[in-house]
Prior knowledge:
The longest helix has 15 residues. This protein has five helices and four strands, in the order E-H-H-H-E-H-H-E-E. The protein has a four-stranded mixed beta sheet with strand order 1-4-2-3. It has one domain. The two termini are 18 Å apart. By secondary structure, the protein is α+β, with helices and mostly antiparallel strands.
Amino acid sequence: MAPSYIEARLDWLIEKSGIVHGPPHRRLNAIETMLTNLARSPRPIDPATQLRMCEATRTQLLAWIGTEPPTGDLVARLVVYRSDAVVIDASVPEGWIRILQRIGSAS
C-alpha cells in the first residue's frame, strides 16, 4: 500500500505564515506548525521522515528562513533541512512540499 500524503505549495505556506520580517527560528516554526496542522498530526512533524521536496524547493525554503547565523536549537533543526535527512524527491513538483502521513495520525 502506498503511503498517504498531503502536499502544500511553499509560497502559500509563506503567505499564510504572515511573516514578512522575523528571525529564522520564527519562520521555521511557522512552516513546521502549518505542516503539522495540515497533516492533522497530534505531534510535530518529523522533517527527516515525513517531508519530501525537490532540490529547488528546499533551496527556496532555506532562503526564506534566512541567512542569519542560527542559534540555539535552530542549529540542529536546520541541519536536518540542509542535509540529506529531508529526502529530496524529484517526483514532488517544484514549489511543493509533500508531507507523508503517520499511520493513525490523520482523521
